[in-house]
Amino acid sequence: MPHASVPPKSRANARRMRKVLTEAELKLWNELRAHRLMGLSFRRQLPIAGYIADFACPARKLIIELDGSQHGEDSGATYDAIRTAHLEKLGWTILRFWNDDVLKDIDNVCLHIVTTVEEPRP
């Protein structure tokens, strides 16, 4: 995948976010890291098109976002919809999970990711 230039501020934010994972991010990262899920290579806190994706698999153009309660508020939901639409126009598939789902049902979260990866792309 060709690299796009990333503004220094975005790069610094992504680096900072990699060092301070939420409990849900850590739990999912332990399932995704080191090619543990279907041999897929995921990266965390990856800058993409002016945004920072929680987890991304560039080879499959798959982004996984974990959402806390702030994403349920109107302003958070609106921002998420705009962001999702922009990334989908660039060919990315975005999966969103609530933090609570990851913490309480990691197996089904991983199953949903695997199912999405196995689906044929249009």
Describe the structure.
This protein has a single domain, classed as Endonuclease, Chain A (3-Layer(aba) Sandwich), CATH 3.40.960. It is 47% helix and 20% strand. It has five helices and four strands, in the order H-H-E-E-E-H-E-H-H. A four-stranded mixed sheet has the order 1-2-3-4, sandwiched between helices. The longest helix is centred in the C-terminal third of the chain and has 16 residues. The two termini are 19 Å apart. The model has no long low-confidence stretch (mean pLDDT 88).
Percent strand: 15-25%
Kindly report the average pLDDT value. Answer: 88
CATH domain class name:
Alpha Beta
**Rg value:** 14 Å
Number of helices: 5
Q: Which residues sit in consecutive blocks of at least 5 with pLDDT less than 50?
A: none
Count structural domains.
1
Q: Which terms would index this structure?
A:
single chain, 5 helices, 122 residues, 4 strands, four-stranded mixed β-sheet, alpha+beta, Endonuclease, Chain A, 20% strand, globular
